[in-house]
Design brief:
Number of helices: 13
Order of helices and strands: HEHHEHEHEHHEHEHEHHEHH
Distance between the termini: 25 Å
Helix content: 40-55%
Shape: globular
CATH architecture: Alpha-Beta Barrel
Number of domains: 1
CATH superfamily: Metal-dependent hydrolases
Structural class: alpha/beta
Radius of gyration: 18 Å
Strand order of the largest sheet: 3-4-5-6-7-8
Length: 298
């Protein structure tokens, strides 16, 4: 297999995509939040160095429209707008923002979220009726268990709709009371048809989550920050991880965490390229698999 040079910078991404033979990128792990929420998120990352972690400079700290244009310039044809609720009464407000964004910008994949509260099923049903194609749940930030009884009907609705859920459930970057693989195993036992995309490939538990994706047809991994220069300082991938991901062709999708990443977008793509998984694998992760998950034409 000829080793293909990766994109050395954002300006080289379009040429690299052309070499792969795909029309662009479909990124299922992108965040577009209401401005006051986005500013708080950026403020959190601005302060991580004070806790002893490596500094986290926001590479795409731009107004909303400029962020949309930046993605277009990178060849990202479709992208999610993942919001996530961290307290009761917040999910519907976030979903309204995501719905409006998707209505105003055809390239935005209509995204939604929900939270363990009595109205969770109604929030999910309203999102689905409005056209939501993908959901986001953040177990660590939300501080809740996926097995919370108040979520049972919401999970059933999402499962029935076939909408994938990008779920941040791993112990990284900080473990939470309810993070880890055990609750996820129980969740898919209850809802085997539920489509889960494990954010950040479940880091730092890369191998158990990879095994979960291998065993369960509806469990996928996203690549968000995995193997990047920043994350290698904290949670390096196992030496044989590229081989494992090669065996999971069709079960891995690109995720970037744009805009709140501490490096250029092209860096994540360069990492994937340098793993030597081949053009077919890359085309699947960047284009074919994510589009299939959210019902976009190939």
């Amino acid at each position: 297999m000829r080793h293909r040079a990766g994109p050395g910078g954002d300006a080289q991404v379009s040429g690299w995509l052309a070499e792969l033979g795909i029309a662009g990128i479909t990124d299922l792990h992108v965040h577009f939040m209401p401005d006051r929420v986005q500013q708080k998120v950026w403020g959190f990352f601005d302060g991580v160095a004070a806790s002893g972690a490596p500094a986290w400079p926001i590479h795409y700290r731009l107004p909303l429209q400029q962020r949309i244009e930046a993605l277009a310039g990178l060849g990202v044809r479709n992208f999610s707008s993942l919001n996530y609720a961290h307290r009761p009464g917040m999910a519907q407000w976030l979903n309204d923002f995501s719905t409006a964004l998707a209505q105003d910008h055809a390239q935005v994949i209509h995204s939604a979220t929900f939270f363990p509260e009595p109205q969770a099923p109604a929030v999910v049903q309203r999102a689905l009726d409005a056209g939501a194609r993908i959901f986001k749940i953040h177990v660590q930030v939300g501080g809740f268990c996926v097995l919370d009884p108040r979520l049972e009907e919401a999970w059933r609705l999402v499962e029935q709709a076939g909408a994938p859920v990008v779920i941040h459930c791993g112990h990284g970057p900080h473990p939470g009371t309810f993070t880890g693989i055990a609750p996820i195993r129980r969740l898919i036992e209850r809802h085997p048809g539920l489509v889960l995309i494990i954010a950040h490939a479940g880091l730092p538990d890369y191998l158990p989550f990879a095994e979960l994706a291998h065993k369960h047809r509806n469990v996928y991994l996203d690549t968000t920050m995995v193997g990047t220069s920043y994350m290698q300082q904290l949670f390096p991938v196992p030496p044989d991880y590229a081989r494992i991901l090669h065996g999971l062709a069709g079960k891995v999708v690109l995720g970037s965490d744009f805009p709140s990443i501490p490096y250029p977008y092209s860096h994540q793509l360069q990492v994937l390229n340098d793993w030597g998984l081949g053009a077919e694998w890359l085309a699947g992760a960047l284009w074919h698999t994510p589009r299939g998950l959210v019902g976009l034409p190939a």
